[in-house]
Amino acid sequence: MPEPQPIPAAPPLVEISDLRFRRGGRWLFDGIDLSVHRGEVVAVMGPSGTGKTTLLRLIGGQLRAHSGSVQVIGEAVGSLGRRSLYALRRRMGVLFQSGALFTDLDCFDNVAFPLREHTALPEPLIRHIVLMKLEAVGLRGARGLYPAELSGGMARRVSLARALALDPELILYDEPFAGQDPISMGALMKLIRQLNDALGLTSIVVSHDVEETLEIADRVYVISQGQVMGVGTPDELRRRGSEWVQQFLGGLADGPVPFHYPAPSLSEDFGGGAS
Amino acid sequence: MIVRLRQLGAGTLSATTTLGRAVLFLLRVVRGSGELIHRPGLLLRELYSVGVLTLVIIIVSGLFVGMVLGLQGYYTLVDFGAEQSLGVLVALSLTRELGPVVTALLFAGRAGSALTAEIGLMKATEQLAGMEMMAVDPERRVVAPRLVAALLALPLLAMIFTLLGIVGAYLVGTSLLGVDGGAFWSQMQAQVSFEDDVLNGLIKSMLFGVAAGWIAVFNGYDCQPTSRGVSRATTRTVVVTSLVVLGLDFVLTALMFD
Amino acid sequence: MDNARSMELAVGAFVAAGLAALFVLAMQVSNITAFQQSEGYTVEAYFQNVGGLRERAPVRMGGVQIGRVSAITLDAQRFEARVALTIDQRYDDLPSDTAASIRTSGLLGEQYVSLEPGGMPDALAEGDEITLTRSALVLEDIVGQFLYNQSGEGE
């Protein structure tokens, strides 16, 4: 049985400690600790509505925590000014669930967008970089297509190429597998893992697709009800996770999370109504 | 009763909050719009969609409004034997009031609603959030050029509308109703003042441009990111812009022309 | 890129049209030309009552416009209205005994200053005063006088 991974000497790339975040009167996160080391693919899993996407927004600085700290690449995201926050964001890429491609630009211009915004590179060089990034996701031939002409999986791959355009250190994936057919799912899984290793990236994957995520992740955080329910390599979690984690990973209908939403007893609802 | 009061209080509170958000938003966008000097291409594209594409409706409406003013004005003036003053009547109505106001209303319907829908859809499809995470500030990249284009385009459109209105009234007056063309222009020149009428009309349309642009981009940026939210924001842009323009016009008229 | 060119062209044409419209409004519709027409000379005329005369009203001789009213002020010593008339340089030999009167074009039309030439050989020059003036006809006075006369005849 493998012990928890030895902690590398370098400080983690992303370190979240005692994070608390409230939305609509409810603590979405109530004291979460999470760390991601350079070169890792870390998955954050949990049932729908646990605020996995919110976690990504907290890491990207689009939201600010109510207490606790979020450190990304050595910077405390919550207390950065606008300028340093934007400088930090250039070092990360985000793959949105919808792809978030610009609908009035074709694939080429979408990938070229961050380059044109942030660099003064000459157009021939931009062309080279863009085609290289598109090649990396296998869509060099689709450069002239508009987002409306792409399938969902292709849109995500173009979006991934765009996220890679500025050679980030950290990539955040928001539900990359949701609603994909098996083939594009396989393609995305392969891309996430290969790009991470080939380009020396660090990846955080937020997902509730258990099988796919466990296959590519180095470590997994399972989050529910504002708490970290389990941490470890996929193997560890499968074997030693708590009852709740077992239910989530195994996709069991009943367990610590009951099948039935809390309700008055059957006899009360059906028997009592008649009188 | 208590419930009513509470609703009233909550409504006032949320309206005030929205206003505050809109003002802060405007300040941020204005502060960020300085970058446009280095990116004239962005402004150019928005001037095209906000200005050039609105031109047709402005030209047609301007001519027709002027022609109607010519007809109606003539029938009123001819009873007093003052049909020579048709030019004055038409020019003053158009430069002071109708030019800026009608242009702003048409602008809200044609360009303002499009701005809101465009920005709202970009928000709904996470394009704005995506841009933000690419370290590109959507307030500067998306909103600022649209706002600046709106407040540049509206005065230009208002001037075109006003001039075409006068031309329309001239055509109807001289060809249909037999008003003397020379008297039409000379009386107009004698009575219409550049500072008091033309310049004040221009100032009005500039302020309307600020209002129309601001309302349009804010409603888009602040909308609920759903299809219903975008559609409601678009409607709200047209309604709020129309009301604000008319209210503002009353205040400005009271201040400018005593 | 061809697309971008035609867009630039359209925007350029739009801005030019807007500015041209403003220019025409300034030059053709409003009286900004009056300020450019400074190549004229100004004479003064005193009236007991200017009625509804406004600044920038036309000055006509024989029905032809030859200048504009440039200022209307009250002379504090004479308690009369002092009207400054700016007359186009082209008409620089109006006789010095020219008379000025305030007339109305039509029953309810605008009021203007009408000049009738006299017979003196020397011409009006910058700063001169027109001494022969007739005030505006005030409609209420005429109606009042008419009624007064009527009642006088009736007795």
Automatic annotation (TrEMBL), chain B:
UniProt keyword list: Cell inner membrane, Cell membrane, Membrane, Transmembrane, Transmembrane helix, Transport
Cross-referenced Pfam families: MlaE
Keyword Transmembrane helix: yes
Membrane topology: Multi-pass membrane protein
TM ranges: 48-71, 147-172, 202-221, 233-257
Keyword Transmembrane: yes
Superkingdom as given in the UniProt entry: Bacteria
Predominant location category: membrane
Location(s), subcellular: Cell inner membrane
InterPro entries registered for this protein in UniProt: ABC_MlaE_roteobac, MlaE_Permease, Permease_MalE
Function field: Part of the ABC transporter complex MlaFEDB, which is involved in a phospholipid transport pathway that maintains lipid asymmetry in the outer membrane by retrograde trafficking of phospholipids from the outer membrane to the inner membrane. Probably responsible for the translocation of the substrate across the membrane.
Family: Belongs to the MlaE permease family.
Xref: PANTHER family: ABC TRANSPORTER PERMEASE PROTEIN-RELATED (PTHR30188), PROTEIN TRIGALACTOSYLDIACYLGLYCEROL 1, CHLOROPLASTIC (PTHR30188:SF4)
Subunit structure: The complex is composed of two ATP-binding proteins (MlaF), two transmembrane proteins (MlaE), two cytoplasmic solute-binding proteins (MlaB) and six periplasmic solute-binding proteins (MlaD).
Name recorded for this polypeptide: Intermembrane phospholipid transport system permease protein MlaE
Species per Swiss-Prot/TrEMBL record: Spiribacter pallidus
